[in-house]
Amino acid sequence: MRMMHALNINYALDDRTLLNMDQLSIHSGDRIGMVGKNGEGKSLLLEYLLGKTDDQPTVEWYGSVGYFKQLNTDIDEYKEWHHLSGGEITMSKLDEIFQLTPDLLLLDEPSNNLDWQHIEELEKRLTHFSGAILIVSHDRTLLDQVCSKIWELEKGKITSYKGNFSDFEQAKQRKIEQQYAVHDKYVKEKKRLIERMRQKEQQAQGMRKPPARMSNSEWQLHKNKAAGKQKKVERVSKVIEDRIERLEKVDKPFEWDDLKMDYTLSNPIHKKQVLTAKKIQKSLDGNILFQADSLKLRTGSKTALIGSNGSGKTTLIKQLLASGDNIELTNQADIGLFEQELAHLPEDKTILQYVQKNSPLPQHVVRIILGRLRFFEEDVHKKIGVLSGGERVKTALARLLTGDYNVLILDEPTNHLDLEAISALESLIKDYPGTVLFVSHDRRFVNETADHLWILENCTVTSFNGNLTAWQTSLDQPKEVDEEAYDLMALENKLTEIVSRLSLPDQKDDVQQLEQEYQDTLNRIQKLRKQ
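Above: the chain sequence. Below: its structure as tokens.
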């Protein structure tokens, strides 16, 4: 059963066509995730279908619709909730929509501003939702948990893929592999034809010379016959040449992520630890916000600071950067900082001008990094003033990745980035030779990128050496018993019992034996304590 059917979907802005589809349908039971690059028009498509644009589309709806509009960073739009955080506003608006029990949900980036616990709560609500769902999201884990179909919006068209986001990634990878195979076949066929044509050209040239041991008079008689054969060979050579020209050219897939570069630090840190902190804490309104006995930021590590909204992650970073009596930051550290609220970027500068300024890297390396962030060819000459929010984030990140820094601190760097850009940032951070400390609610981004975790929960910061999967696995495993501590406690209890019996020996007790047992037990206790 159809829940929505639209015809002749077309939307243009200036000279650019953003949407161009003959028809589009959503059926009952559909659980669709829509993905696409920044600026492709994902949010626009939802607004267009709902009749919220200047154009009047031909759309039929079959049932009630619940629509979650992507939360704007301008809090003035939500004056009735001015006392709430972005995450609290998101949850309140989602609660209102779910309470209406619509037949179809249209959700535009509902996980923005939510911490992991609330994203998992949203996943559960969507999993148990009985109606149809169309969700725009850059949270790959959410798309994996909820969706059974993926729509990719590219160049105004929707391509539909069966399965969740992981299935979509595999399908895209198969397309790339198929293109490689077709390209290899094209190259081999072209090479074979060129070699065949060369052989025929050499054969034709050989026919112009008299064979060995043939006299001139014999050659004169043979020449006319040879000329006829030569023309036939030349015709075959021309046919082969025509076949080469008619071959459909197949380009080799070009993947920027495969490009490696000489990515070295101009001022590397030679100490084992960039930062150490002991016995730190922060209070808010008389209550402890967080405390930590010991934190170490290892040189070269990729450390993720994770925790729920309002737990104090950003506050902790600011406290560490401010230094203090219990915080030691090496003077070798040159820190590049990315904050959730982007600082003012120079509107009149191009992407390349801004990113390359003061960078120690040569231009070809800067261009490769920009390419890996999907700024291709002439894109790098765009003025910052015309960039979208996602493009501005990528520009700010490129400036840090190419800057004269050896430590990067990134507060929610994946906000506003499309899935392709998030994946590109993952690989760039892995390749980055310096130290990275970052905050993120993107679970897959953390798992793919971090090799160390700082976990802020229950007002305490703890460390874990490993990625997110390893940490979550450790939580599910039963705690191991400390056998040595158990043995020590048992021996100490035994020693207390022996001392009691020696102080008031019974007639049946062998005092000499008890004294020997006392000494043996004491020796074992001392040995364990030394261990």
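The chain is about 40% helix and 20% strand.
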